[in-house]
């Protein structure tokens, strides 16, 4: 086979391989997030997340470890009712900063979802999630 044909064949093979890889990766990425379907977070819009954040800030500032604060998305404009609890846990100090593990619960359409991040109080007085 002439060298030009080999180069063209190789380029075609690489293009097909790359296209196949993109398709497989896209399908895998979608499949990896499939477990989130129909969970409360899939129904949450930005204003719902803000309502949850506001509840978390209030709970972290005012509640004792193990004491819960109820929250909901009423008034956010979302047609899907979402509610839950915010429960600060395990207060501790890390690098001279006050931190707390927090349990966030959201319920929507008969499904419940729970997260347990760690939040630390920033110099501006707001609680921020600690990078894991």
UniProtKB/TrEMBL annotation:
<feature type="domain" description="Surface antigen">
    <location>
        <begin position="33"/>
        <end position="130"/>
    </location>
</feature>
<dbReference type="Pfam" id="PF16998">
    <property type="entry name" value="17kDa_Anti_2"/>
</dbReference>
<dbReference type="InterPro" id="IPR032635">
    <property type="entry name" value="Anti_2"/>
</dbReference>
<feature type="signal peptide">
    <location>
        <begin position="1"/>
        <end position="30"/>
    </location>
</feature>
<feature type="compositionally biased region" description="Polar residues">
    <location>
        <begin position="70"/>
        <end position="79"/>
    </location>
</feature>
<keyword id="KW-0732">Signal</keyword>
<protein>
    <recommendedName>
        <fullName>Surface antigen domain-containing protein</fullName>
    </recommendedName>
</protein>
<feature type="region of interest" description="Disordered">
    <location>
        <begin position="62"/>
        <end position="93"/>
    </location>
</feature>
